[in-house]
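Quick log. Single chain, no ligands specified.
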Amino acid sequence: MRTLRERKLLVATHNAGKLDEMRAMFAPHGIEVVGAAEMGLGEPAETEDSFVGNARLKARAAMQATGLPVLADDSGIAVDGLDGAPGVRTADWADTPSGRDFMQAMTRTWAELDARGVPEPRTAQFRATLLLMWPDGEEAVFEGVAPGRLVWPPRGALGHGYDPMFVPDGDTRTYAEMSAAEKNRISHRARAFALLEQVLA
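-> predicted structure:
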């Protein structure tokens, strides 16, 4: 598999939480990480019906705009009792006229499980797809999954997105009750990143 030898990498996200996680993960490898917002890039519409499709769309747009190697992430939560929803539409469930509101998304998720009469434990998986694209268009895909369960009410003030209602298997705390270092050791994104590390020079 091709090795990433460049020391500067564009992470195609406007999500500050994801960007902080990526900076922490790449720092030990001496790779400088810049975000899409810092480069003045817009956010392409996520029109694909798969995580890898959306990641590829974001990576290609950012690579063509900057000529840098790009890492794009598409991730979300798949709830078993909702037939895998919201899945690739995780961010869409948080959309409001004034921006993204994940408390709204979490409330909707729990309410829909109630409406279906889904018993506890209400299982779910966080899924992350990392797509690394070189300036010549070659790409490599790395996927990570973290199984767990949902809790209500949400707990914890750390993290982002659905973190306050997700308890990973093997723990009693939500992602939002963990420090960034603790979460980064076990998260879906960390599992995908462990595979990506194999191509870092």
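The CA atoms of residues 132 and 140 lie 5 Å apart.
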